[in-house]
Amino acid sequence: MTIPTATYRLQFRNGMTFRRAMTLVPYLKRLGISHLYASPVFAAAAGSTHGYDITDANRFDPALGTAEDFDALAATLTENGLGLILDIVPNHMAASLDNPWWRSVIERGQASPHAHAFDIDWNRRLTLPWLAKPFAEAVADGDIALSADAEAGCLALSLPGLAVPLDPESYDAALEGDDGVNGRLLSLADIARREGEDRFHTRLRALLADEADRARLEARLAALSQDASHLEDVHERQHFELIHWREAPKRLSYRRFFEVTELVGVNVEDDKVFEDSHRLILELVRDGKVQGLRVDHIDGLADPAAYLTRLRRDIGDETYLIVEKILEDGEDLPADWPVSGTTGYEFIDRMTHLLVERKGAERLRRQYAALGGLTDVAAGLHGARQSMIARNFAGEVSGLKRLAIQLALSEETHVDVGEAAIAAALKALLGVFPVYRTYGTKGALSENDARLVFEAAAKIEPTLDPEEKKALDFIVTLLTGECAPRQTTRAEKFRRRFQQLTGPLMAKSLEDTLFYRQMPVLGLNEVGGNAGREEFLPRHFHAAMAERAARWPLALSATSTHDTKRGEDARARLYALTAEPQPWIDGVTRWRATNSRHVTRHPDGPAPEPELEWALYQALLGAWPHDLDPQDDEAVEALLERLFPYIEKALREAKLRSDWTDPQEDYETAVKDYIAALLSPDNRLFLRDFHRTIRPYLRAGAWNGITQAFLKMTAPGIPDIYQGSERLDLSLVDPDNRREPDYASLQASLDAASDWPQGEETLLDGRLKQALIARTLALRATHRDLFENGDYRPLGARGAMKEHVVAFQRRHGDGRIIVVAPRLPNSLMAEPDGMIPAERWMDTAIDLPDDIKSLTNAFTGEPVEPQAHLRIAGFLSDVPVALLLSD
Prior knowledge:
By secondary structure, the chain is of the alpha/beta class.
């Protein structure tokens, strides 16, 4: 298998094309990258900024370039010794008229050759939540009309900005009788039945190309559009039903990605659908243009194991394969998945054990609670889930309830429980499910997955009445596969739907709700993170890395991605608050008093609330450019423009006083006005105070960023670098974190880093971090076996600063490396520049294994005399971390 040394995630679109990416390849090679890791490159919905709304998986997005352009990029990578990893999206496609498969299903319903491609409930019409108001109201207001779409070659129901194709079989009713044009349209409908829709659309386009015919047809359609009852009749004859977008959570007839109605679930488990949606992907792998695949949202699939087994068979054993999957504490990937591991969210979480100080985190939580903030994560998550179950996922829950009732009332089962009891038991179980999902398909769940179900059921059983307990027992039998044999097929469907719901429910409740409601330590609110963790201890990091070395040594290790809530260096700054919380607590107290006049009073409370003020100051710290002069009004304004989208998203994701479906403009404006007042040129007193107070945290955060990056490159796993984060990533949540980096500056600083960058400025602006990454990746390339296959052993420390060092050994065969880095750097830094001189380590030493006979400092080339207790001051001087080699 082709194993990466290091990957570099590049976000295509928004100006990044195949040809432009070619120009970056020499830089990536010099940085030490072995594989370019590309965001989705296939045709996506018009104007897509991310590419996950795919419209055609067998065609490159024209916005990125042609097939020839892609080939040129692949060739350039090969010429430079780099590989290519593609992000593929098997779970969903764009529910958009840009998607020819979706358009066909809208037009032809179950007669479409692509009807089986999507996860649609065909017991009713396909619901399209594209109306800004209920259908009858839209008709009365003239928002819906009959039209001829000359470009697409069809008749349509036109909405503002959309022309929804009609079923050709309904043309006769739509036109109410025969004239010259209508007669020919009806004959074309027969062609649609006999020769297929492509032939039909081609002929209709030709007919509409005649100006006289088109004008006559358009006049007739315009006249008929004045009749509301006629429009309603035509609408009733379609395979689709237009509904108000607010109805989607309860009435949607297709599986969607999370709660995004614009993305429809794909039945990729169907062999034909798999073949049709993977044709180009497999061709690129077989032609040697792609060496690895990243599978997006693996938990959305009906049967991830079967999909991955099929994919592995088709791409062969030499192709690197990873999956996007969030693992909870103690959770592991299923053993039967033929992959090298995950995309690495869990690495972010495990780093908190090193970079967060437990007592300081608790002090910050207490202060947050004193301001009125909620700190009970378990209760907060349960409340968020209940809200999601009742509102955002009401349709999915209702569908599960209907399936359970049908099974309960069937002759084979006949469980005497009412609908209300089943609904209550189902919602209660969903409300406490501990992981993103289980993986049962046919037959019983695995022992571990069954245990999760039983434990969740035991947790809620005391809260249920006798009938609800009986309903819960029945639901558990459906999930664990212990139901009656004749009910197996329908039970499997229930289990599949349940499993495909728990993941989105967890993600939206935790990452996209709770993380914006409970914010005592903002850096902990991260994808894959545990915001409720109270015990941050290095031994937990070491245990996780030892297990990673044993089980998933080739998984990616991420610190920033396109989906993280903030950039890795912003997060590292926020970790620094826990090591020295009191100056921050005192600062927030002052700033709230200074800026109290900017708080707006509303009937439902102040805007912003005290706990939200607390979080806003943390967000400001994380995003503050290291060189921002508070006197520079233009630079401060640029920061403000970045903060506004973040604030809007944070308020709406919290779903407390505003949300996406019902934005409260007065409240949102008041909060934005508050942050604008903070950064106003008229608020110099605050700006100077804030800038002075955060200076130590900028330095400590930069050291945290150094350690975080260094350990990512040396601990078990394949280091993944998100675009631009090789220097300084202070981004906020998307769209801020998807801005293109300044590659000219990145290239220039790497070119200039022939010697180790020295001084505070190189620490703060990321040049030291970039140089460290380049040097460490070069060492990875020359010691591949050691980094890819080496075991993991933590090394103890002793002396005055023993709590401020992390050290471990990697060993494979006769080779080994010793890794040493600082942690909790606040008390290590010296004034006036915030650097860490060797003398700060005093007598601190690490405990070496007694069989080491020689050591060389890989960064300086100098020999290091092995000692049972190796003093750190002897080798941590010009370089802030150490990588000691022993052959």
